[in-house]
Amino acid sequence: MLSIFVYSCLNLKSKIQKAMLQELDIRNYALINKLELDFSSGLNILTGETGAGKSIIIGAVGMVLGERVSADVIRTGASSALVRVTFDIPDDSRANVIVSEAALKGEEDGDVLLFSRELSESGRSKCKINDLSSTLSTLREVGDHLIDIHGQHEHQTLFRQEKHLGILDSFGGLKERRQKVTGAYEHLQKLRTEYERLVGIRDEKLHQKDLMEFQFKELEDAELKEGEEEKLLRERQILNNAELIYDLSNSIYNCLYNSEEPTLPPVLDVLKSVKADLAKLHEIDPQLDEVQSRFESSMYELEDIAEYIRDYRDGAEFDPRRLAEIEGRLDLIYNLKRKYSANAIAEILSYRDEIARQLEDLSLSSARIDDVRREIQKAVDRACKLALRLSRERASHAKKLKSLVERELNNLGMEKTVFEVQVLRKEAKDGVIEDGGKRFRFDPEGIDSVEFLLSPNVGEELRPLTRIASGGEISRIMLAVKTVLARTDEVSTMIFDEIDAGIGGRIAEVVGRKLKELAKTRQVICITHLPQIASLADCHCRVEKKVVGDRTVVEVRRLSDEERVNEIARMLAGEKITDVAVAHAREMIEQAKEE
User: Fold this and answer.
1) Which of 92, 461, 524, 587 is the most interior residue, by most CB within 10 Å?
2) Is the Cβ–Cβ distance between 15 and 521 less than 8 Å?
3) pTM exceeds 0.70, yes or no
4) Are 393 and 401 in contact (CB under 8 A)?
């Protein structure tokens, strides 16, 4: 039988303005066949007998948020396990930004964010965000900004040391100051990259400087000019054929003007005779006026040609000295073309100009390197001031956070617990930041590493939170820290499992009130065995393990007001519920409403 835990708490106005877990859908996970839960704001309480399967539900949430799971969690007989969760998130939440940047959210999705993870028998899983395929790392990253699970399952941002620095900065209101440090770091890195680029270029060119200077001088001394090769080839052609040029020119001239052959009169003399005959024809027929004019023009043109050929013939002279000069010049051009793999003088001149530019750049780059080096020093000085100030403020706020958390731990029955916020500067011999004769490594977050340490008992050394074994201790520590950080912590849904381990009486009441207080600004989901805590619930459901047919199943049922009274009476008195237990339970619930 399917039990659906659905509640809306209509008379409870939500004070939560952050992301909220709305729905949880579990299929074929452990003992759960099919389970759908709807959550609301405030304090959500899950109760039930030991072993009823309450922690299975928390494990399913951990799975969909990216925790490591094995195929053993798949329900017997099923081929895969599927968990889906639906969140209501505001536009300005970090989770929403991550999802949008990963192109996993469309306009039609609105404020809804849907996670799903399906685990197959082979151990492989399919992750989706808003029904779009996602990587497990993205699923985990987004989940870190939405939910903290505390207790038996490990999805606890506070217990991840890399998160501690951000928590301290958030507590101290130092995010803006850290952003300035990050900006200073990025500016410094940009300058360093530019410096290394310029030095690399300069060093590479310095290795080639002598060669470039030699090549530039060689090409400058050559005094090459575009078109020079073609002119030299033409002149060489003329000089090598000077005798033939003379003979041909002389023959043409004689043919036109000064023939020495008695049987072959000069062309121009013949044309003069033709001219006289044409003049007589013109006298007879004036219509030949145009023909006569054209003929006379042709004669004048031929006379000019004859004079030009005569002068050209007279200028044809073989000059062996000039030919030698031309041959030498052409040899120089050919050698330079071959040496610089050029097809034309224009390419050689272009290469010469490029060498000149590189030599000039080399000079300019040295000046630019000096400028960048000075800019780097200024950037280091600024980064040093910002990073050291941020470090000092972190140390100051660390003491405040320690004091406030220890006060909360004292109220939660951990009077002897020492909570330490360790702020250490990261020393490095080649560190950028210097203070007090020491150097420190500088990164986008400054020069500090932050870690939360704890000593639960007198005489025990401080240890990282990750080495605290007790689920009850972990949950109460988380509750203490989260109470202090309630105004600054981004994560808005908190799930507590085994928060009541090892406590009772007055401490249980204190823990319950802390949860209730936290639920005013957070969505809190809590598994508890304590009636003091359960009586404070805004919404209360019971987890039960049943045998349906021949299979064991886990079911969840939202309790009515009267059922709540009976459930708390059971928690007070055990299976045999007395009238006294019922009256006490009713009184506890009524008192919780008055708070």
Assistant:
1) 524
2) yes
3) no
4) no
Residue ranges in 23-71 assigned as alpha helix (H): 54-64
Could you give the count of Cα atoms lying within 13 Å of 172 in the half-sphere of its Cβ? 25
CB count in 10 Å sphere of residue 482: 23
pLDDT digits (tens, 9 = 90+) for 350-387: 999 988 888 877 777 778 888 899 999 999 999 999 99
Residues 185, 300: Cα–Cα separation, whole Å: 88
Helix boundaries (H) for 241-319:
242-256, 267-284, 289-315
- Name which of 480, 499, 334, 306 is nearest 409 in CA terms: 480
Alpha-carbon distance 175 to 390, whole Å? Answer: 10
Report the distance separating Cα 504 and Cα 571, nearest Å. Answer: 12
Alpha carbon distance 426, 25 (integer Å) = 45
Q: In what order do the strands lie in the sheet with 551-558?
A: 147-150, 493-497, 523-527, 43-47, 539-548, 551-558
Confirm if 109 and 130 have CB atoms less than 8 A apart.
Answer: yes
Spatial distance between the Cα atoms of 589 and 538, rounded to a whole number of angstroms: 10
- How far is it, in rounded angstroms, from Cα 141 to Cα 261? 110
Please say whether the beta carbons of 543 and 48 come within 8 A. yes
Question: Within a 10 A sphere around the Cβ of 501, how many other Cβ atoms?
Answer: 17
Q: Collapsing DSSP states into helix, strand and coil, what is residue 172?
A: helix
Please give the DSSP secondary-structure letter assigned to residue 444. T
Mean pLDDT of 133-159: 77
> What is the end-to-end Cα distance of the chain in Å, rounded?
37
Edge to edge, the sheet with strand 463-464 lists 418-425, 448-455, 463-464
Mean pLDDT for all residues in the chain: 85
